[in-house]
Amino acid sequence: MAVTIHSRTNALRRRTPDALLTPTAGAERSALRRRLGRLDLVAIGVGSIIGAGIFVTTGVAAATKAGPALMISFVVAGIICVLVGLCYSELASMSPISGSAYSYTYHAMGEQSAFLVGWNLLLEYVVAGAAVAIGWSGLFVAMLKSLFGWQLPHAIIAGPTAGGVINLPAVVVIGLIVLVLAFDVKIAAAVVKVLVCVTLLALLLVVVIGAPHITVAHWTPFAPFGFHGIVAGAALAFFAYLGFDIVATSAEEAKRPARDLPWGMIGSVVIATLLYIAVTLVLTGVAPYPSLNNSAPVATALSAIGAGWIGNVILVASVVALGKGLLAVIYAQSRLVFAMCRDGLLPRALAVTNRRGAPVRAVVILGVLAAVIAGLLSIDTVAELVNIGALVAFAFVSVGVLILRYTEPERPRSFRTPLMPVVPLLAVAGCVWLATTLSSLTWLRFVIWTAIGAVLYIGYGYRHSTARSAAADTGEQPVADESNTGTTTSQAVAQ
Hints:
The chain contains 18 helices and two strands. It has about 500 residues and is mainly alpha-helical. The relative contact order is 0.21.
């Protein structure tokens, strides 16, 4: 029989997946349903990654960071994401439960570390969701003006900090996405797949139309900002890849998590990297890279070759891309909070699911929070917190793989990270390397947010932890024997 709660000390409680996958009293009200297949997971990953990054970040990064060498920056960032994805995949095969890096860290390093990882991931998702909603609003307003000549009043398209009253389009789009996510995850996945197809077709159109007009001379100098520029470009490009870890939050809703999650995470990164490189080649090949430093670099590049007519197509595709990206981010927020609430570290009432298996309360509350931020505030340098929160989580996951190979070598793994310990060590090094490029102000904000999380854990999470309650009920004191005979619950679900 597998022992599922470990308590070297109360502060370092660890919990294996068996504790969450074994039915308990009231579990039917806090359970997600396995409805997602391999294609759904890939679509969620691609839908999360391909968004504002490919339509806006490519131009800004090329003009101000790396020049035409931005394609190398994307390769570097993509490689780091693949390394992290390989670590995620092993942990997902061992822990086919919701929560992503939070749940994996809980398993490997204990409750305190898991809470802080989850807390910082929540910051990443909330800030990213608000920023994407504001970006979507701007593109939607521009699309209305370009296609129909409609100009919405400034008072309803910007928050008070931007000279308006409320960013109404941002609030409305969040409300619509909350309705989709509260209904059925399978419907949400179907919507994402349709939107991903529209976005990919638009990007392929850009590449097909632009490729014949590439002028090699525009790639000289290839790296105008030197090696440092390539690194800085990789750090900025990394922001465009952050969505790939959203796939891991769907582990408990995947039909075959152990087999399909690696495909979802790594496959989405590879597809996105190829698209980023192709678009970067076209943009920097058809127009001088300094001219791309604007909010619509794709349209700028196509105008340079007399294909300005496609600008409206790209504008519509941008609205679609950011819409599906926002859906994926709010989805990830709700599944992360669901996992933390189910563990008692946040109010457990938010882990209750409806008859379709959707955590409606978490979806609605997070949607309201995102709507308030997007509707009233202007997201600028705060968005850098998205990067640092993700890098910390990725580093913890990579270290977690090393720890569990040592502490639980016999636990079944249907996917094993190759080239141990090289891959996780390189993943950690890559995350640390990119984190050093972030500003000191970002680090200060990160420290403050983490301190708030520590206070919340001490004041609420520690006292209400289900692992602590279980340990108290059993009177457990020493570290339990983790060996097991027979098939564990997590093994059965993974198969």
